[in-house]
Amino acid sequence: MIPLMRTKLQPPEVRPSLLARPRVYEQLRNALHSRLVLINAPAGYGKTSLLVEWMQEGRKEWSHIGWLSLDTTDNDIRRLFAYLLEALTNIPLERRERLRALISAEVDLDAEQWFAELLNDLAEVAGSTVIIFDDYHLISDGQIHQAITFLVDHLPPRCRLIIATRSDPPLPLARWRARGHLAELRSFDLAFNPEEAATFLLEVMELPLSRDQIVALLESTEGWPAGLHLAALALRSRPNQSEVVDELIASNRYVADYLIEDVFSRLPAHLQQFLLQTSILDRLCGPLCDAVIGVYEQSAPSKSNQSYSQLVLAEIERNNLFLFPLDAERVWYRYHHLFADVLQDRLEAGSTAEHVAMLHRRAGAWYAAHGMLTQAVNHALRAQAIDDVVAMLEPIGLAFISQVGEATLRRWLPEIPEAAFESHPRLALLRAWLATADYQVEDAAHWIAVAERALAGVASGAATSIGLIANLRGELSAVRVRLALLQGDTEQVIHEGKQALAWLQADNQALRMRVAKDLGYAYLAQRDLARAEQAFSEASINGFNAGLPYISAMATVDYAYTLALRGSLGAAISACRDTINQMLRRNRSRAQPGIGLPFLALADLHGLRHEFAGALPALAEAESAIKSGQTTSYLNLLIVTARIARARGDTDGALRIIRQARFLARQRNVGWVLAVLDGLEAQILIERGELDAAGQLLDDRLLKPVEFRYMPVAAFYAREHITRAGYEWRLASARATSDGEALRALAAELAQPPNGEIWQALAPLDAALLRGLALAAAGDDGNEAMLTALDLATSERIVAPFLQAGAPLRLMLSQLAARQQLSPYGEYLLSLFDDDEIAPAMPASTPAPATALPDPLSLREIEVLRLMAEGRSNHEIAATLVIAVSTVKSHINSIFSKLGVASRTQAVARGRRLGLIP
Hints:
Rossmann fold, five-stranded parallel beta sheet
């Protein structure tokens, strides 16, 4: 889990001397009609103070206001998202835990997927939400800017985002401005006007100034609130206030420099020293400051522990010296950014580099002692204390990636001299792992070589434990596995994978899981399905043992589709069910990360058996768990939905889903999905007799080769819909022209399994089935091949390919039955050709056939309709589905509209007539 500082989620406490500014509050209130409010002004214009004060009134209009104070350590998408989740406490805890597990999973996911999940949850939350990002100018990570763009573009109607910054962020402001999505408050909006300046100086700061002096100060500071504040502090400390005003007006120096110099120089020496030394800290508490200034106090901060520095901080706050409390207990504070910048400049100008480094080392040591590794490493790097950095990173190694995120490590590691990597293998392995994540083959190879040299040096040390050396060797082999996968060297993947599993200790389950998964991909590419099954099974087990159910679910799906490639549907279905049950035993939430994947596979595999009573509820569970932002998973959901619609005879609905999926796949450039969709559409066109259109699709697909061999689900679909579609088109075309020679040539080809990738070889059942059909169409005896196909289908109860073969197969089965050569399973298949049985009444929680309604119900609406039929109240439905009551009402209104009814009773009756519910 990513460690978080709670004070970043709390707005600073309001100071008693804060000036109320109803004029600006009203501007902000009006600005919130837009999706994004950008507050852009230099330091000292009161951006944070404005937001803190507005929140007191804003909570009366907005149900929830989430606050996040940003700093440079937040330039990591996982870290920022984790904080955002914590800020949005109006999202139910169960859903936030699901998203938290998603970002903590050791897997590369598109950040837009996380934000899409978050937006879906926000859309279902009752009430309105405002999200505040303070100090956004400290964010420089491009991935975060892209994610925020996505967030603003898709904000639900009752959500707003406020960004406070010193400069315009690299976001599409012009586009949002043109569309009315952006409102702005800038420095001229925040500057004090004459009335506010007079109130502040005369009433808040209690200075006896004349109207002319106030006007002079306002003009010299140009209404800059911090400038007026500094001027007031200077005036309070000088007996001759007119002289100060004259000096300020006459001075050519920058007003902040002048005023801070004046205020600072009049402070007692102990406060000056304290302010300078602690200016290196982004956040301050008594014990931390004690450590930095040399008064060592290792206890954790608390109100009862009034350390020396805690007392000094209280004194600074009383003197109104730009110190903001970050919590109600006055434990954590921060300096005003402007004040901190000036203090840091004075510290560096008046101190040696060694002294400043010492302060950072002390801060880093305190943070490390209190388990705040991100802050500890940041300070150690500023101190150039490389040994300290190494000491913190080295023991954790690759596990650090999931703790702080790849982006943070990419900032840290280049600051470490290369010589340090030569003697610390885990640091070199971190660099190598990040290089593989970036597909940088040469860089990965370089850092692997560095790790090898470093490991050789460590292994020769007498004090190094045997267990540590073994784990290091295993980690090195694990990174070599990743590099070999990038290079397409499956032999090397297998060799290094075996080495890694032999060396890695049993408790290093997360890495063992990754290695096992990679081994499975390599075995699959080599068509060694038995070993691929074993590897994916081990990966799934290790994932659960390592506390990574999301990754385990992914491995289970790989395992299930590898079984399916071998024709073992029963075992594949059992594997999915076992994983679902195991996940639900650990976490009862049916919306937890990853659970939609085995549900989706379960639906797909039941569909091959035409077991719609099992397929359709599982499909509904998958749709509920998988959101549209999860690109690959959502595309898989659309593929399975189309496959099941086709199996139920709803080819129009299947084609609509295929086109929807193709649009998304093109947007996201998911090549293998586009290929599968082309094949699936071609098969449907063949069934409809549209051979020219199908042939064109398949011809186009041949010009766009796609890699399938590393993905079990992709390989399975490719075989089902690309390879098989090619044979089906040849069969249908030859049959249409009564081309006996072509039919016999096809039958002969199907008798010999081709060489090549696993997906290029038809399943034995499909080969026998198509061969029998080809021979029969040529006027030859295809019964032996057909009986072979039936034998292969019997134990696994496979149905779909037979029914999809249509009338020619029905004729063959009827002829075999007349000769009493048809097996009981063949008789069962023959019975399914009754039209009423091909598309039975749809059970609950399933998508309605597209032809049944002009505007079909969604899966969620069908689930609500089923619960209505059970007599559940709106509150009971909301509790069952973990959604707001208002959302239930919206679903019910939509159901009434689509069904053309006006009451619950009418809706249930109409739903039953349409086969939507039992």
